[in-house]
Amino acid sequence: MKILVCINNVSDTTTKIKFVDNKSFDSAGVQWIINPWDELALTRVIEIKEVQPSAIESITVINVGLADAEATIRKALAIGADNGIRINYEAKDSYSVAFQLAEYIKKENYDIILCGIESSDYNGANVGGMLSEFLNLPSLSSVSYLDVKDGKVMLKREIDGGQESISIQTPFVGIVQKGIANEPKIPSMRGIMTARTKQLQILEAAPSEIFTEFMEFELPKPKAACRKIDPENVRELVQLLHNEAKVI
Q1: CA-based Rg of the chain, rounded to a whole angstrom?
Q2: How many CB atoms are closer than 10 A to CB 22?
Q3: Would you state the pLDDT for residue 3?
Q4: Which of 66, 72, 155, 241 could form a disulfide linkage to 9, CB 3.0–4.6 angstroms apart?
């Protein structure tokens, strides 16, 4: 099986967010990482390949972004992906990401296409569903388990009150959530050295329409100062909740 994992280049969650004149994101000094949900998807397929080398022919990672995403792609190669692709395009929204991915995938033959359920920057949760529509492929959301047994793909997803087990025909788009892997795979020194020689293909973007424009960014208002109350002083707590917070 040939597997494609879509990865997004996002800022580390500890990054202090800044904007230039509230018009554009200030990327100076930002630490970039693989989107956590995408990284878990990648980790899981690498685990399967390590246990069943004959089950997976290749693992490719793909990113829609500019040159600053290449360090993140190289990390994915160091973790264990076989090759990487970067579509040279500054995406403005989920639609443009899904469109660019689909235009590439239509020309290839991948059995499993995986996306994280959302990205940690905009939390749109749109790309996987849009991608499956562009490709006219079945998709399965909220995937928390993936395995390949005797050539069959077995999936599990969380549902109300339990878990659903599914066997699915390839090709398909899997939209992955937490639980598919225990924790992200850490690249070894050998993996880091090997990643330098793995293929990273740069593709030009397909012509597309732009439907989204960022007008202005605004940081949330600072949180009010925390007030500490003696745990024995229940009367004061009740008064504050009633008179100031007005929640009781």
Answers
A1: 22
A2: 10
A3: 95
A4: 72
C-alpha span between 234 and 243 (Å, rounded): 14
CA distance 18 to 26: 5
Q: What is the dihedral of CA 166, 140, 175, 97, to 10 degrees?
A: 160
Q: Which two tokens stand for residue 84?
A: 């990487």
> What are 78's two structure tokens?
């160091």
What is the mean pLDDT of each successive set of 10 residues along the chain, which is 248 residues long?
Answer: 94 81 79 90 94 91 94 94 95 92 95 91 86 94 89 87 88 92 86 90 91 83 82 88 84
Q: Which residues, including other chains, have CB under 8 Å from residue 45's CB and lie 6 or more apart? A: 3, 5, 56, 59, 112, 114, 146
Q: What distance in Å separates the CA atoms of residue 169 and residue 99, rounded to the nearest whole number?
A: 23
Structural domains of the chain ordered from first start: 2-216 (3.40.50.620)
